[in-house]
Amino acid sequence: MAEGDSGEKTEAPTAKRLRESAEKGDVLQSKELGSALVMIVGAGWLALGGPLLVQALSELLRGSLSFGRDAIDTFQPGQAVEARLAGLALPLGLLFLATIAAAVGAPALLGSFGFRWGAIAFKADRINPLAGLGRIFGTQGLVELVKAIAKIAVMGAIGWWLLKSRLPMITTMGRNDIVSNMADVGHTFVFAVIVMAMGLVLIAGVDVPVQIFRRLSRLRMTKQEVKEEYKQTEGSPELKGAVRRRQMETARRSARAQMADASVVLTNPTHFAVALRYRPGQDAAPVVVARGRGATADAIRALAEEFDVPMLRYPQLARAIYFTTRAGQVIREDLYVAVATVLAFVFNIDRAMAEGRSQPEIDVPGEARFDENGRPEA
C-alpha cells in the first residue's frame, strides 16, 4: 500500500471542509464562554444599574403599603399592579437586553454567529442509544466531567474565600441599623458576582482552546480525502488536460489562416507566443497576426511548426508585443528597432546558421517591459 493511503486522518481540515461542517451545524462552541459573558454582563449591570433596581423596589414597596381613601373608593387592582410594576420595567428590561447581547456575543467571538438549517436537520445518531452512551462514557463525556469538576472546585473555592473574608462583617450585622446592613449585603453580593464571573472567565479561557483542538481533531482528513477534494475543487489532471486540449484545438482553428502568412513567432518561451508578419513592399511595419498565452500560445507554436515558421525565444519582446498590440495591428514604434533586428536575422537565417551565428541580442525599451501579469517592470 502506498504511503498516505492507510486511512489515518493525519491532515488538517481544509477551508472547504471547515465551511461545509459549519453549514451542517458543526461550529465552534463553548458553553463556558457564554456563561462567563452572561455573568460579566450581569455583574456589570448590578454594579451600574443595581441602585436603580433598589430604588424601583423601594418605590414598589412604599406604594404597596400606603394608600388613601381614593384607593378604597375607586378600587382598581389592575391599574394599581400596572403602576407598581412600571417602575421595574426599565432596570429589568436593561438586564434582559444585556444578557441577550452577551448570549449572542459568545458565538460571535468564536466566529460561529448565524443561523444554519443543518443544525436542526434530523440526525439518526441523536436518537441512537449506543451513540448516546458513547458520548456519555467516551472522550466527550470525560471532558465534560472534568469541566464540571473544575467549575465546582473553582466556584467552591471562590465561595469559601468570600465567606471567610466577609465573616467578621456578617457576625457584627446585628449591631448596625437595617439600612446599613442592606447596603453591606448589596455590596457583598455584587462583589461576589464579579469574582465568580472572573472565575468563569478563567474556565472559559481553558475551554475555548480545548474546543478548538477538539473540533480540528474531529474534522481531520486523510491524504486521500485531501486529494479527492482537490480534484473536485481544481479539477482532476485528466480533466484539466482535456480542457487544455480543446482550448488548443479551438485556438489552432481560429489562428490557422493567419499563421500561413507569419514571418516569425516570438515566444516567452512557454507562456506567451506572438506571430509577426512583414512583407517588404506591402507592409509599412511588422503586423501582429496572432497572439496568445497558455493554450493559445501552444496552438501558435504548433502551427508554426506545421507551417515551418521560424520560432525564436525573446521573452521580453514577446511580452512587450503581447501587452501593447492586438492581432491585426502594427507594432509600437518604440519596438521597430528590436523587431527589425529579429526580422533581418530571420530573412537571412539560412546563411546565419551556415556561418554558425546565433540569434542576435536586442534591447527592449524600459517603458515596454512587462512581467507575466502585465505589470510594468521597474
From TrEMBL:
<keyword id="KW-0966">Cell projection</keyword>
<feature type="transmembrane region" description="Helical">
    <location>
        <begin position="33"/>
        <end position="54"/>
    </location>
</feature>
<keyword id="KW-0282">Flagellum</keyword>
<protein>
    <submittedName>
        <fullName>Flagellar type III secretion system protein FlhB</fullName>
    </submittedName>
</protein>
<feature type="compositionally biased region" description="Basic and acidic residues">
    <location>
        <begin position="1"/>
        <end position="11"/>
    </location>
</feature>
<dbReference type="InterPro" id="IPR029025">
    <property type="entry name" value="T3SS_substrate_exporter_C"/>
</dbReference>
<feature type="transmembrane region" description="Helical">
    <location>
        <begin position="145"/>
        <end position="163"/>
    </location>
</feature>
<feature type="region of interest" description="Disordered">
    <location>
        <begin position="1"/>
        <end position="23"/>
    </location>
</feature>
<feature type="transmembrane region" description="Helical">
    <location>
        <begin position="88"/>
        <end position="110"/>
    </location>
</feature>
<keyword id="KW-0969">Cilium</keyword>
<dbReference type="Pfam" id="PF01312">
    <property type="entry name" value="Bac_export_2"/>
</dbReference>
<keyword id="KW-1133">Transmembrane helix</keyword>
<dbReference type="InterPro" id="IPR006135">
    <property type="entry name" value="T3SS_substrate_exporter"/>
</dbReference>
<keyword id="KW-0812">Transmembrane</keyword>
<feature type="region of interest" description="Disordered">
    <location>
        <begin position="358"/>
        <end position="378"/>
    </location>
</feature>
<keyword id="KW-0472">Membrane</keyword>
<feature type="transmembrane region" description="Helical">
    <location>
        <begin position="189"/>
        <end position="213"/>
    </location>
</feature>
<comment type="similarity">
    <text>Belongs to the type III secretion exporter family.</text>
</comment>
